[in-house]
């Protein structure tokens, strides 16, 4: 998890770094473009300055020339004013002087006209230059405003990037601190893992030595005691009785019970459907109570009347299959012999469907040819004809796959185990197809019944029969949907339960081996019951022996008590007889003899009892010793079995620990490699961050310097433009005044 987080962070940092590099390239390009634009503007300003200077020089020369011309015009005007009175006085002077003055005047007029035209041309050039200057000034001002806006935007971008870089630097520093803490914790965990691995290696070494000795001992026992390995060959292994899985059997019986209920519902719906279809034929399109129906419908009705003999066996076959699945059997495809019977019953029902299908289609055609049949009803009849064909085809498809599933219980090579899952999947698809067909039949038949109910000749008997057929079709649709969803929900369990069988083998070889296995299972169950009975009888015998010993001890105690009572009674008799007189002793010699005889007879009776009680004591002692040693042997065998099971469990735990140790070593190596790579990546990212930080700082300083220089140049250009405007305004005013 730590390595994944580090890699994710490194990827994010790399993506941010690539984004920053791309933004840096864009900024560099923008700065270079701005530098080129500023250089071009400088060149344009220089050219404009040169052109303005030229125009200013021309303006100066023109103003100077205009002044000269003005002075000359004034002089000429003065001379003209002086010459006019003289001309009046000297009109009579010669024609030569008048002609000379006229020639001079004409020359002056031409020269003045040329100067006026040149002055107008210069005024036009000046006006055009002024207009061009104003246009260039407006363009430069707009360009300056755009450049200022771009400079402000670039400055904002630079400020945002600096903030972002600072935030990323802080974030990376925090991540670095977290990663350092995490690396320290990982180093501690790695040290702990090393210590644990060393301990596990020691334990593993000891366990390996112990288990290797036990393995050698067990291998020697196996080679000496086991005659042959019956799991080596599949033919022999198929005869072995698998472990009894009671949960699996109960689950299979429950599933079979649900399937039986669904099949019973389907059987009831099919019986109703065929029966009500027969009733409908008797009343539509011709009512048999009024007129005779067609021979075709008579034959069709006769066949439909036999539907119970084909439909009922389906329920019986499923019931037999359910009864064959008990808690004591092994339920796989090789042992489900009753599935073949159900498949045969389904085949007979499909033969029945094939037999009635042509009559059903012809009966629908006969309804279409009737005068009562409308175009809509004819269309519904055609749709029902197609639906009946689909229904028969779906049942044939379903019977094919069920017949394939029944093959393993009858033919050894009828179906390979690798194809079991595909066949079961196709059974589910066929059931869903059956459900879809029944939905179409229900839809089309409901439309057909609605149209027939609107006919003027529709009788109450026809309406009732149609409702009954619709209810049976709806029941068929619901039953098909239930059994299709039921099979789809349990198909994974069916596929998984196919491997249920003998261990270390692909399964049963043939139905004969499966049958033999079931017989062996019954024999094994009977043998286990006999062993249980023997065990119970042995327990009863041991209890009876214990009771026998108890009662023998009780009898011995009773004998001892009896002897004590006899002795006490004899002593009492002696004490009473000694207190009496001699007469009495003489009178009763026979009584004393009698009592003596009784005492001797009692002693004689006790002596054989003592002598005979010795034999049962020896036998009981031997039985006790035997029972004690048998109990001890049983206790030792149970302890030995417990020790063997513990050793196997311990061996499995050792193997698991060794695997976990190997995985821990691999994960440790992977983590160390990841830590190395992470450290290298951290150092590389730190170097890249420092370099990028420096480069960005340098670029920012360069950009700030460049922006300052641009601002200075722009201020200078503004000043020059202002001066040019002032000079141009002054020149224009002078020209206007002139």
Question: What can you see in these coordinates?
Answer:
This protein is 88% helix and 0% strand. With 738 residues, the chain is an all-alpha fold. Residues 581-616 have low confidence and may be disordered.
- Largest sheet geometry: none
Q: Please tell me how large the radius of gyration is.
A: 63 Å
Helix fraction bin: over 70%
- Count the E strands: 0
Organism: Canis lupus familiaris
GO molecular function, one term: RNA binding
Biased composition (Low complexity): 95-104
Domain Protein phosphatase 1 regulatory subunit 21 N-terminal: 11-112
List the helices and strands and how they pair.
Blueprint: H1 2-89, H2 95-225, H3 234-237, H4 246-283, H5 295-304, H6 307-324, H7 338-369, H8 375-406, H9 420-453, H10 460-497, H11 511-578, H12 582-587, H13 589-737
Subcellular location: Early endosome
GO molecular function, one term: RNA binding
Coiled coil: 3-72, 137-196, 527-561, 654-688
Outline:
This protein is an all-alpha fold and 738 residues long.
Question: Main traits of this protein?
Answer:
single chain; 738 residues; mainly alpha; 13 helices; 88% helix; Protein phosphatase 1 regulatory subunit 21; PPP1R21_N; RNA binding; RNA-binding
């Amino acid at each position: 998890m730590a390595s994944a987080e580090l890699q994710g962070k490194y990827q994010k940092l790399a993506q941010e770094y690539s984004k920053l590099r791309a933004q840096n390239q864009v900024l560099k390009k923008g700065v270079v473009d701005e530098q080129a634009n500023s250089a071009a503007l400088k060149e344009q300003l220089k050219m404009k300055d040169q052109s303005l200077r030229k125009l200013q020089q021309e303006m100066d020369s023109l103003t100077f020339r205009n002044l000269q011309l003005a002075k000359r015009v004034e002089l000429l005007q003065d001379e003209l004013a002086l010459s006019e009175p003289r001309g009046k006085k000297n009109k009579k002077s010669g024609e030569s002087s008048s002609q000379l003055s006229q020639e001079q005047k004409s020359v002056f007029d031409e020269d003045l006209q040329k100067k006026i035209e040149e002055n107008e041309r210069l005024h036009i050039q000046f006006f055009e230059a002024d207009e061009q200057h104003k246009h260039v000034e407006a363009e430069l001002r707009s360009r300056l405003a755009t450049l200022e806006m771009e400079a402000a935007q670039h400055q904002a971008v630079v400020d945002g990037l600096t903030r972002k870089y600072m935030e990323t630097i802080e974030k990376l520093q925090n991540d670095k601190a977290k990663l350092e803490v995490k690396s320290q914790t990982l180093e501690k965990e790695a040290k702990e893992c090393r210590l644990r691995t060393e301990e596990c290696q020691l334990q593993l070494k000891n366990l390996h030595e112990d288990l290797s000795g036990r393995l050698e001992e067990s291998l020697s026992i196996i080679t000496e005691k086991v005659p042959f390995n019956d799991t080596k060959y599949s033919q022999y292994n198929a005869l072995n009785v698998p472990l009894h899985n009671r949960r699996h059997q109960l689950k299979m019986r429950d599933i079979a019970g649900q399937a039986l209920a669904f099949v019973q519902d389907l059987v009831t719906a099919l019986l109703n459907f065929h029966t009500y279809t027969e009733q409908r034929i008797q009343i539509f399109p011709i009512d048999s109570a009024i007129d005779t129906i067609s021979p075709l419908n008579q034959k069709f009705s006769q066949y439909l009347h036999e539907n119970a003999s084909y439909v009922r066996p389906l329920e019986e076959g499923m019931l037999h299959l359910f009864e064959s699945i008990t808690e004591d059997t092994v339920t796989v495809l090789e042992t489900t012999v009753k599935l073949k019977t159900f498949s045969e019953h389904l085949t007979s029902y499909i033969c029945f469907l094939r037999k009635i299908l042509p009559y059903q289609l012809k009966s629908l055609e006969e309804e279409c040819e009737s005068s009562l049949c409308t175009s809509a009803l004819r269309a519904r009849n055609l749709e029902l004809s197609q639906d009946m064909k689909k229904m028969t085809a779906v049942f044939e498809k379903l019977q094919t796959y069920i017949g394939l599933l029944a093959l393993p219980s009858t033919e050894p090579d009828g179906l390979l185990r690798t194809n079991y899952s595909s066949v079961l999947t196709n059974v589910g698809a066929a059931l869903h197809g059956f459900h879809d067909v029944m939905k179409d039949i229900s839809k089309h038949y409901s439309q057909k019944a609605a149209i027939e109910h609107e006919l003027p000749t529709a009788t109450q008997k026809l309406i009732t029969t149609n409702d009954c057929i619709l209810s049976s079709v709806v029941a068929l649709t619901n039953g098909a949907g239930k059994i299709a969803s039921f099979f789809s929900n349990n198909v994974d369990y069916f596929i998984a339960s196919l491997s249920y069988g003998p261990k270390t083998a692909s399964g049963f070889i043939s139905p004969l081996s499966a049958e033999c296995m079931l017989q062996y299972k019954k024999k094994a169950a009977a043998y286990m019951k006999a062993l249980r009975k023997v065990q119970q009888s042995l327990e009863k015998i041991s209890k009876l022996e214990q009771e026998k010993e108890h009662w023998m001890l009780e009898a011995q105690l009773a004998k001892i008590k009896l002897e004590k009572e006899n002795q006490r009674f004899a002593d009492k008799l002696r004490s009473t007889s000694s207190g009496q007189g001699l007469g009495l002793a003489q009178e009763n010699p026979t009584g004393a003899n009698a009592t003596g005889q009784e005492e001797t007879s009692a002693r004689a009776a006790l002596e054989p009892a003592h002598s005979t009680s010795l034999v049962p004591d020896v036998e009981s002692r031997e039985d006790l010793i035997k029972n004690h040693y048998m109990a001890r042997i049983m206790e030792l065998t149970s302890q030995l079995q417990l020790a063997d099971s513990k050793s196997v469990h311990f061996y499995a735990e050792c193997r698991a620990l060794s695997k976990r140790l190997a995985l821990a070593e691999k994960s440790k190596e992977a983590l160390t490699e990841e830590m190395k790579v992470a450290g290298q990546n951290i150092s590389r990212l730190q170097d890249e961050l420092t370099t990028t930080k420096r480069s960005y700082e340098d670029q920012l300083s360069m950009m700030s310097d460049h922006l300052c220089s641009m601002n200075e140049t722009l201020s200078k250009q503004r000043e020059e433009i202002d001066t040019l405007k002032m000079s141009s305004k002054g020149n224009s005013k002078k020209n206007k005044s002139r």
